[in-house]
Write a structure and sequence with these properties.
CATH architecture: Beta Barrel
Distance between the termini: 8 Å
CATH topology: Lipocalin
Strand content: over 45%
Number of helices: 0
CATH superfamily: OMPT-like
Protein name: Outer membrane protein with beta-barrel domain
Order of helices and strands: EEEEEEEEEE
Number of domains: 1
Structural class: mainly beta
Oligomer: single chain
CATH class: Mainly Beta
Number of strands: 10
Length: 231
């Protein structure tokens, strides 16, 4: 599942954003759907000038719907960076599609995810927005009947057209990876903790902000119908 939005806090004005996947390469069965909800935190280390940013609480929730045997779609309500220091992170919407490339019997499941996110608000008559296209690859290995491990690679860009200087001077490019463990507590409920590290390169208002970000989080997953596997 794409999270566009997962983990970037590259300046004080551009606080926090989710990047973790919180899913596996498997897709939700056709006409079934699943719900996830959870939280986590992040820290970023920015170079030249050296600054550290820490966001201990990031909210996350989403739904996934099975479209076909190897395709599902997702909607997420997740944290998106906003270009105003008095606003910081705010909730935005993200949509994505996941396509599984391997048979369900393959020992390693592989999927690609593409999507994008958007956030908008008005504060004191000032209109603020940010948007973020991205793509990811997930590789999942089943450990036993109830558990699997997933490796994720992610590439995305966040653009802030309403910040001072426009989108050419207010953006961030992010790439990196994460590892997650999906575990079924029973036939309906599961947990997915995940840890990721990301390279952050961008600028805000003509000032370069490059560094490394670390993020950790966990979600609770509920299958509303009997799906074949964890998302």
């Amino acid at each position: 599942m794409l999270i566009i939005l997962a983990f970037c806090g590259f300046v004080h004005q551009l606080q926090a954003q989710w990047l973790l996947n919180f899913g596996t390469a498997a897709t939700v069965a056709p006409k079934d759907f699943a719900f996830i909800s959870g939280t986590g935190g992040q820290v970023t280390f920015i170079k030249n000038p050296a600054t550290n940013n820490f966001t201990p609480f990031l909210a996350h929730a989403g739904l996934r719907l099975g479209i076909s045997r190897n395709v599902d779609i997702g909607y997420r309500l997740c944290t998106v960076t906003m270009p105003w220091s008095s606003v910081g992170p705010t909730l935005g919407s993200a949509f994505d599609a996941k396509i599984r490339l391997t048979p369900t019997t393959a020992p390693y499941q592989v999927a690609v995810i593409v999507g994008g996110g958007y956030a908008y608000l008005t504060i004191l008559d000032n209109h603020k927005s940010a948007w973020s296209p991205g793509t990811a690859v997930s590789v999942t290995r089943q450990l036993n009947v109830n558990s699997s491990i997933t490796f994720n690679g992610r590439l995305l860009q966040t653009i802030i057209p309403t910040a001072l200087g426009g989108k050419a001077n207010n953006y961030v490019n992010i790439w990196g990876g994460s590892i997650g463990w999906a575990h079924n507590l029973n036939s309906v409920v599961g947990i997915i903790p995940e840890l990721g590290i990301f390279d952050v390169k961008g600028q805000i208002n003509h000032v370069a902000n490059n560094g490394i970000g670390l993020q950790v989080g966990m979600v609770l997953k509920v299958d509303f119908k009997k799906s074949q596997s964890m998302q």
